[in-house]
From TrEMBL:
This is Peptide/nickel transport system substrate-binding protein. Residues 83-368 form the Solute-binding protein family domain. One of its GO terms (biological process) is peptide transport. InterPro entries: SBP_5, SBP_5_dom, TAT_signal. Residues 365-382 have a biased composition (Low complexity). It comes from Allorhizobium taibaishanense. GO terms for molecular function: peptide transmembrane transporter activity.
């Protein structure tokens, strides 16, 4: 059985999952020791953009830092705060509706001992690395996950202006997201995106040590970290595919933290006095889309009928034990001023769905050959 003092070292099973979608760092108020985390999978790459997934950021966010970070616990928030605060940038200011100036911290070192400068920041968000026609051959989502970037402008060694070609007040939010990790220009260019993803270097509190595909990733403490010092000597992310096996490993003490629990697993773990689970609604939705190449779905009335026939309340209750929620569209509080709290959530109305099917003229004479659906509940990630 696990010892009760594990609680002092752990932040709870949910922290690893929360860190998988945030910029949280593993910093523990305890003696330095090795930390072992049982995870559901590993990313195919540790290149920050190529590693965006439900398994990548929990590792990437320990290796890399961003100019701005989102403080998930600002102003008393419980893991869902939206305040943006300086990180690698000591300060930032709006110049106009298309550009933001960043003053960088001086003396910050990449894991290879080379100082981070404005040249590294500019390269990180340049067409050469991220969004140009050649760049997207090896970083396919670099353009998809970006605003309409223009080339950055380096004003001096520690000052850089990031710009968009069209007005955007989301620049800061992008930089506090998965798009934000800063990479070392010369090292990245010497390897290329693919090789960099197998041997990454950042400025974060932990340094890459080892990657064994489909088995584990090990990081080691970066004792020269510019911020709060890492308290674990190493972090090993060990793949444990089956949720029940992850839970058993946590209970036995084989793993210090585990990720991606089912609601039933959470109830089991919470039954132990020296263990706890934590989780949060994530700003994402499970969804299917209508295949508009199917003639049947070109009828808007019929599409509306299908949407009304999805029993989202039952999904929330049966799949997530009422821990999930039904989203009101792609409409999240972190959108800031554009968030509409009064927008209605997706509705379940079988009778109205039946009426619309009749109105559409559909008589069931043909059936789609591909899946359909619309926005489904916002998942809860433990």
């Amino acid at each position: 059985m696990v010892k009760t003092d594990r609680r002092r070292f752990l932040i709870g099973a949910g922290v690893a999952a929360l860190a998988s979608t945030t910029s949280m760092k593993f910093v523990f108020a305890a003696d330095r020791k090795a930390l072992k985390i049982g995870v559901n999978g590993l990313p195919s790459s540790l290149e920050p953009i190529n590693g965006i997934s439900n398994t990548g950021p929990r590792i990437i966010n320990q290796i890399f830092d961003s100019l701005i970070r989102r403080d998930y616990f600002a102003d008393g928030a419980k893991g869902n705060g939206i305040k943006l605060v300086p990180a690698l940038a000591e300060s930032f200011e709006r110049i106009d509706d298309k550009s933001v100036r960043f003053k960088l911290r001086q003396g910050v070192k990449f894991h290879n001992g080379i100082e981070m400068t404005a040249e590294d920041v500019a390269f990180t968000f340049s067409s050469e690395r991220l969004w140009g026609d050649e760049a997207i051959k090896t970083v396919p989502n670099g353009r998809n996950f970006s605003p309409n970037w223009d080339e950055p402008v380096v004003e001096d060694k520690y000052t850089v202006v990031l710009r968009t070609k069209t007005p955007s007040y989301l620049i800061e939010k992008y930089l506090g997201s998965w798009l934000g990790p800063i990479v070392p220009k010369e090292y990245y260019k010497s390897l290329g995106a693919v090789a960099f993803g197998n041997k990454p270097i950042g400025t974060g509190p932990y340094k890459f040590k080892e990657l064994v595909a489909n088995d584990h990733v090990t990081l080691e403490a970066n004792d020269g970290y510019w911020g709060e010092k890492p308290a674990a000597s190493t972090i090993t992310y060990q793949v444990v595919a089956e949720p029940a096996t992850r839970v058993a490993g946590l209970i036995s003490g084989e793993y210090d933290i585990i990720t991606t629990l089912t609601p039933d697993d959470m109830a089991l773990v919470d039954g132990y006095s020296d263990l706890e689970t934590r989780g949060s609604l994530i700003e994402n939705v499970h969804m299917f889309t209508f295949n508009m190449n199917q003639p049947i779905f070109q009828n808007k009335t019929l599409r509306r009928a299908f949407a009304l026939a999805v029993n989202r309340p039952l999904m929330v209750e049966s799949l997530w034990k009422n821990k999930a929620s039904i989203p009101n569209g792609f409409n999240f509080p972190h959108y800031g001023a554009s968030f509409d709290p009064n927008r209605r959530a997706m509705e379940y109305n079988v009778e109205e769905a039946k009426r619309l099917v009749k109105e559409s003229g559909y008589e069931g004479t043909s059936s789609p050959t591909t899946r359909w659906a619309t926005t489904t509940p916002m998942p809860y990630q433990p």
